[in-house]
Amino acid sequence: MIGCSRFPCSVTAGDRLNRWPGGSSVDRSVAALRPPGHDAIRRCCVAGGSLSIHRALPSLPSPWTSSLCGAALVLSVAALPGRASGAPDSAAALSVQDVIEGVESTYKDVQSLQADFHQVVRSAAMGAGPAQEGVVTLARPRQMRWEFQVPDRKLFVTDGKTMWVYTPADNQVFISEDLSGGDGGTDQLLDNLDSLDELFDVQLLPGAPEGSVKLSLTPKQDARFKKLQLQLSTDGYRLQELVVVDSFDNETVLTFSNLRVNPELPPSVFHFEVPDGVTVVRADGP
């Protein structure tokens, strides 16, 4: 699930399974989950360190997590309730600074987000994989829940301290309780959205449809994804599309709908109770 520095990142876990269909249940479970994209939990969630799951799952290449960071960022942008005061409606009149200021001035009040998502991963070597759909929930600090519902049920949950990866088809859950390893995590990324231009080089891209604007976000710090591309409406900066491009030009395309800002969320949303009879694999050891 998490990228491992011992292995090349030029193929996704899904690619690996296509080439070696006899892969382990660890490979099948993690590759099947694959929240949007890959390549960056090591940088984005625990920058400066390594998750113990690297040691526990050494056979996995690095295929899927850059978009956890990208999606956390983009969902925040997508859920903004409206345009910054005085921001123009016309894409031609918008500047990069207009968009940055609109995001930064509004995001400071966003504590949690929820949305339906549709995801397609496009491998530069092997083309597009199957579409996946579900619900994502994010909250400060470092709390995420990705519920994959189509075509198969899978679940990724973290409360910022413990991480669960549950694949019902394998009747198995992976648990890691070591999310230490330095700062610069998803919580920091979310908390720093009021400093968007400090984290990314932001550029306007040509070719946006009428009523929309396209942005390219290139990380200023070392990251496992090359860039993010956003398409947003000029009326309210509502997200229309997110593309996460990794260092091998693989793309994860995410669209979001039914966005909810600061929804009421019980603490159980970011916790997983292991069902009876499910095999538990602890990434941090026995």
Structure description:
The structure is a single chain. The chain has a single domain, classed as Clam (outer membrane lipoprotein receptor (LolB), chain A). It has eight helices and 13 strands. The chain has helices at residues 13-19, 25-33, 41-45, 52-56, 66-78, 96-107, 186-191, 196-199; strands at 112-123, 127-128, 132-139, 143-150, 154-158, 163-167, 172-176, 200-205, 212-219, 225-233, 239-246, 251-261, 279-282. Strands 1, 2, 3, 4, 5, 6, 7, 8, 9, 10, 11, 12 and 13 form a 13-stranded mixed beta sheet that branches. It is globular, with a radius of gyration of 18 Å. Mean pLDDT is 70; it is low at 1-66, 83-87 and 181-189.
Task: Give a summary of the structure in a few sentences.
The chain is an alpha+beta fold. It contains 8 helices and 13 strands.
Specify the overall morphology.
globular
Helix content: 10-25%
Total domain count: 1
Strand content: 25-35%
State the end-to-end CA separation: 19 Å
CATH superfamily: Lipoprotein localisation LolA/LolB/LppX
Low-pLDDT segments, ≥5 res: 1-66, 83-87, 181-189
What is the succession of H and E elements?
HHHHHHEEEEEEEHHEEEEEE
Number of helices: 8
CATH class: Mainly Beta
| Main β-sheet description | 13 strands, mixed
Average of pLDDT: 70
CATH topology: outer membrane lipoprotein receptor (LolB), chain A
Number of strands: 13
Label the CATH architecture.
Clam
Structural class: alpha+beta
Please compute the radius of gyration using only Cα atoms.
18 Å
